[in-house]
Amino acid sequence: MKKTFTRREVLGLGIGAAILGGCSHAVPVSTPKVEAEPAPVWKFPWDYRTLDIKTTQERAYNAHFKSGCMYGVFEAIVGQVAEKLGKPYTDFPFQLSSYGGGGVAGWGTLCGACNGAAMAISMFFQDKTRNAIINEIFTWYETTALPIFIPGKPVKVAVDYKMPTSTANSTLCHLSINRWVNASKLEAFSPERGERCARLVSDTAGFAADLLNKNAEKAFIPTKEMSDKAKNCLSCHGQGKKAVDEPEVAGKMFCTACHPYTHR
Amino acid sequence: MKKTFTRREVLGLGIGAAILGGCSHAVPVSTPKVEAEPAPVWKFPWDYRTLDIKTTQERAYNAHFKSGCMYGVFEAIVGQVAEKLGKPYTDFPFQLSSYGGGGVAGWGTLCGACNGAAMAISMFFQDKTRNAIINEIFTWYETTALPIFIPGKPVKVAVDYKMPTSTANSTLCHLSINRWVNASKLEAFSPERGERCARLVSDTAGFAADLLNKNAEKAFIPTKEMSDKAKNCLSCHGQGKKAVDEPEVAGKMFCTACHPYTHR
């Protein structure tokens, strides 16, 4: 027998078919069409997800050799969180951060590891929390003998290479490299220096991820706004504390890296 | 008369309803379900779209007062292109770039206008083209008396305020500010200095957009890799040109801003 359907039955089936087809729109049935705004691709700032430090360090080390220092830190942190959050977060153009390599396009300004860490923090926090975490990272970077990380399979040196360390006393790329060059007696453009920067990228990503993990556990306590040396200088040269004949300084950098201490 | 429909007609109507409902899925009709990978949110690098320079300058000026210098340059350029490209480009988290304010979280390192311009260029180009455009911007920034832009409605000063200008001789925030402080005899934390930075952000966004426009018209000819002063220093201290007892320098910054010229 040939089954037939009434107009009302057909209408019901049409709506059912539309819904079964996995659609979010109902069939328009003489109601005015409302154009819904497409949903945002993602919320911002992103939610953070706790990261394993060792995994982060290894990922940063490898990412450095793909697209440089800023990308290394940024991708190791934000790329991993994106994978934990899923689509569309994994579509973020991480490659964007590669511009900061060698202190931005080889200019030797801000170290790409610092720039990449700051950009990564900014994906999860804005304003006070972001700045407090950046302060910790930059101060640690200025005052710590780096690199510390030892990869299982070094890319540029032999597995038993004893990596010299140096304390940058600066967040600037060319100064940081120069300290290491002085400590190692090797060239700025040597394979060993390339290896050093990859390991420093790894250290910075690990340190930043550790602070983000602590913050997620409400266990992050800011201890530094800047180095003790900069604090000492800015106690006279900072905002509202104008030294005689000297302008206020708008910054937190390690002053004596460039300005010899010449107090009268 | 009561109209009736056959089974075949109903099936056709069901599919039609699903399609009319604005759905991308056909009604499943005994065919195996294929889970398609969601399309990427956007391609990267983004396509560039020619920008009006005056509009870009004004947008950067206003954006600066919303979220700082790096955001000002980045949002003025990339935000406008996003609007020309439409969804999902407009969903990009532009606020991300606000971390670079005041030389990154107030540290006085790389000027946020420079950092924001470099990040903006990186949205459209990678590697050589990106670096060539960044070189032009950074060299222009170091060697040009800024600010030039005069807003119709100044935010921090009177409409007839005569803005002092200064040449930064550096891409670093606290040096750039200090040059202007010396030129103006005003405070680093004064409203006038805030106004100066907003106008400098405007200039940098306009200059970068002009280079991007020229590049889109195949009329961008790189003229600078670095300043003539840095080139002079690096002719002995650069890669492969090691001066006696001096390491190679990995950078393109204006050397004599920090290193007095003390040749023997």
SSE topology:
Two copies of one chain form a homodimer.
Chain A: E1 4-6, H1 7-20, H2 53-67, H3 69-85, H4 112-124, H5 127-143, H6 173-184, H7 191-216, H8 228-237
Query: Any idea what the radius of gyration of chain A is?
Result: 26 Å
Count of helix runs of chain A: 8
Percent range of helical residues of chain A: 40-55%
- The SSE order of chain A reads EHHHHHHHH
What does this structure look like?
2 copies of one chain form a homodimer. Chain A has 264 residues and is mainly alpha-helical. Chain A has 8 helices and 1 strand, in the order βαααααααα. The first copy, chain A, has helices at residues 7-20, 53-67, 69-85, 112-124, 127-143, 173-184, 191-216, 228-237, and one strand at 4-6. In chain A, α3 (69-85) runs parallel beside α4 (112-124), α3 runs parallel beside α7 (191-216) and α4 runs parallel beside α7. The radius of gyration of chain A is 26 Å and the shape is globular. The termini of chain A are far apart. β1 (4-6) of chain A pairs antiparallel with β1 (4-6) of chain B, so a sheet runs across the interface.
